[in-house]
């Protein structure tokens, strides 16, 4: 066991106590922080000082953050705990529908609700009852007819979920299926009521009966199952959505009877990573932890065109046979050459039976294809759908075998033509 030297603290101990409670909030929000890191943080702050807010932030960041996915949680907890003097009112507004008549006017930012839950853990969240004026009846509102919790969770944006909601959403995604219809093959198989006559089988039957044809053998095209190939963006803007989609992908890869011949998974940010073998692990947490260790560019930058070029060059012939369906999960925000992005998306589209683009930005009602990357990719996909909630993934499962479904592509293509 590691041993720590005696640490000299200020007499009042307020800064060390605040760092301790800050670390406790981070641990409640999901960061793996032990007592050793708290001592290291106190020692680091004592050595560096905290006259500059920026230095104080990065000192604690270096002590408490060691994975890219922890940055958003740390940022929100730090902002609420150290930087905003009205953080308690903001946290309560995230946890309750109203505070003394002040309604919540905006959605929570990334990891903000989790940060609020962590900081309010153990606190009394019940507000005192307001005294009603004399002679005025107090109106009670029956909320029993409101949307059920599970139905509400289905429509909630992944980015706005709290820790408890994310855990419940993962359990719901594990039960969600993605069934696909089989495809007719050029191979033929015997079928008593088949539409085509099988001459060779008919002659074989006749030879067994002295050359007399008593029955015509028939055949139908055999059925085959397509592959599912998922290309998932794990850049900083897509981090939370990617985690939920990968949980869904793991459930699809390990559930029998849905029809997919094989499920292939790839992540990309600044480079392409094949995570197919990790999806075969039965335990979802172990599978995604192994995939996260292999994908070194998690929550980094985005180079969609370059990553699609790598996939088309190295993997398309291996995994896109037999009428594969490709799910491309990305927001399309790419700063690289738009010409290369358009060429590689077109090549991917020509290699796949169907190319379906899931974009979480479609959650906004006023979404328009203004970004250069979106304008370059949109003409070369078969369907353009939202991918920000459980309901959007359920809608995908209902239409994934429908070749006529285009999602929002037709509407956005008309907007591009204007």
Automatic annotation (TrEMBL):
Alphabetical list of SMART domains matching this protein: VWA
UniProt superkingdom: Bacteria
Residue ranges constituting the VWFA domain according to the UniProt record: 225-394
Record's protein name: VWA domain-containing protein
